[in-house]
Amino acid sequence: MAVYEATASAPVNIACIKYWGKRDTKLILPTNSSLSVTLDQDHLRSTTTSRADPSFTEDRLWLNGKEEEIKEGGRTATCIAEMKRLRKQEVEDKQPNEPKVKNHPHHAPQILRSDHLGLQLSTHHVHIASFNNFPTAAGLASSASGFAALVSSLAQLYKLPVSPSTLSLIARQGSGSACRSLFGGFVAWEQGTLPDGSDSLAVEVAPQSHWPDMHALICVVSDDKKGTSSTSGMQRTVETSPLLQHRIKHVVPQRMADISAAIRARDFDKFAEITMRDSNQFHAVALDTEPPIFYMNDVSRAIIALIVEYNRVSVEKGLGRKAAYTYDAGPNAVIYTLKENVKEIVELILKYFPQREGAFKDVFGLLGGVDVAKVEGNVPEGFNEAVAKKFDVGAVKGLIHTKVGDGPRALGAEESLLGNDGLPKTLAA
Amino acid sequence: MAVYEATASAPVNIACIKYWGKRDTKLILPTNSSLSVTLDQDHLRSTTTSRADPSFTEDRLWLNGKEEEIKEGGRTATCIAEMKRLRKQEVEDKQPNEPKVKNHPHHAPQILRSDHLGLQLSTHHVHIASFNNFPTAAGLASSASGFAALVSSLAQLYKLPVSPSTLSLIARQGSGSACRSLFGGFVAWEQGTLPDGSDSLAVEVAPQSHWPDMHALICVVSDDKKGTSSTSGMQRTVETSPLLQHRIKHVVPQRMADISAAIRARDFDKFAEITMRDSNQFHAVALDTEPPIFYMNDVSRAIIALIVEYNRVSVEKGLGRKAAYTYDAGPNAVIYTLKENVKEIVELILKYFPQREGAFKDVFGLLGGVDVAKVEGNVPEGFNEAVAKKFDVGAVKGLIHTKVGDGPRALGAEESLLGNDGLPKTLAA
Prior knowledge:
In chain A, 34% of the residues lie in helices and 20% in strands.
């Protein structure tokens, strides 16, 4: 008997223009448009297998081998229901099986049965297993790549003839920023204006191939305290920050236009300027919230000071800004820079943030095989070393080097996360 | 021969509605009105002696015993020149000496000479010695109390028949926030609209006696790095923060009205809400600056978390907010609270921030004679202790307990900081 199953992987994305605030919390419609860079799945990804089977008695979901409840009316349930609805609307209703079979009596019964089951996929329950290849402790949000992989695997399973933008409408209802992980390269989430959210979707600003030298260095920062969740945090900002409305109406629209133009022109200096300003403004409106929300800590601040000084030196040499920091709802820094500067920036970070052995998987071979714990670090000529103090080992507990990447990938059956029994192959995280 | 000299002390003030941004940097005209509480000079003060003498060959100034250059066209020079101008305009030009003496030939020549010299005070050079009773290391801005004491001592020396508001116009040109130290109690600095700044002055919202139970606990926080000076920082915010303009036009005016009403009604809950929101918004626009400005650090954030939780418990009990944090251009917290709550708050702070011996001068006798290093600290019932971690000794390196106070005081000759030779009595800081 046929197994109806598909496996997909989806990338992480890190916003340059930040999403912070919903105008509709159920449909997840944002108060402003946002724009991100999709990171390479070769390094950071969520992989998801979805299977539909008439023997399944309910929809079930496993994250990193651990079963998660699919709450009725919750975000996961919504995404699954929407994908089933699309399956019915775009595939099953357009290719009704019964009449066709009646008109073609030469179809063998077993084929008919199999086709029949396949065409009824939307009526079957699904088992879904998802795995993130980056540890939760890295502090990277997995909801964007996770919901993008979920929607992508179901789209593949259901053979949906729809665009990534259409899928982004559904991923958005799982986690807002997930909609941006449906594309590779440089991606805008257009806020839209319709009450039903049907125009609040992701579009490609430029593909990965447009600017493949865009690299990213993630500095994983330790934090003592659990920050405010972004879901509750952003709504508190919407309700209490007087500055947010100004940001939404008068700042973001221009920035969206300007950074899109900078990306199209491959103008890194401008890209960096806008990215850093928007990260700062997002954290500013978080701070303008009652009670205030802080995501950055003293280590985050020190990394900002290093990048500001690094750019000052570079601008003074007439080279423009060479790096852009950005911070999401946590203390981790993501530093965008062009390929040619990554080594210099890694050395700069190592000068102030010594690492434990193995804390950097040097996938691009920057350090020539030397372990990161043995690298002293260095600052560029003219750099004022006093802008930050040297921290203890572990203040930045790891570095991840990656670059702009492609959109969701369809994987082969050999990558399936589900066993013959319909349960996850491994239960370990 | 008569000595023309006067000594005055002036208080520190800590703003609830923050001053951040100038529309005129020379006249020091602010982009928005602000409001502060004047703190008690019994605890924190600047004391200044000004002397005029025909034998002096130039204007000279000593701060904490160390001579400071009076730069031509600088802020100190401007204040001294303005005070001399007022002396001439308000006193000397209105009481011309020569004609009077001629009409009264029974005046003895030496008296005539003395009076004559006195009436020409504005033409003499001055020696000025100023002393702050709080260490620079405390991180408290001394410019406000310093310029208020300077202007007050000169006003006394020159016997100026002018109001504190008029003097505030001059102190403002020394350091913007100094204008608010010309009054005790609760003080507004009205931004004004005239280009010459003649309506940008301080006014009393309510005197000290209106709400004497308003206490303040200053948590002196260690910091590794020197922050951006407020003078250069605020201008960078004016030039680069898109959010500042919204704050100026649409947020501050209402807050000024609301907090003034709260003070008049002695509504601590409302006073606290506005004070905390405005502190947060000031730091938000600092963060929205390019490059961003940070004044608060992880210790500051932890104190905010403690006060937020302290208020949550209190609000839940139906008591409203009982404490308000506020942060100026540095990591120190100033916590406003009513007298009855100070002990509880000191114990709360001590629970998370153990102190060195002698790090708290317990002027109100809260700890019953026990040294602060020996006090364990405590949290109120229902307080979630997990909102912050316990810090090492020295993270908060000292506590200062004070309260709302009066305006500048005229001191007796025995308090003079200048010796017979016209030089500071002590050269030690």
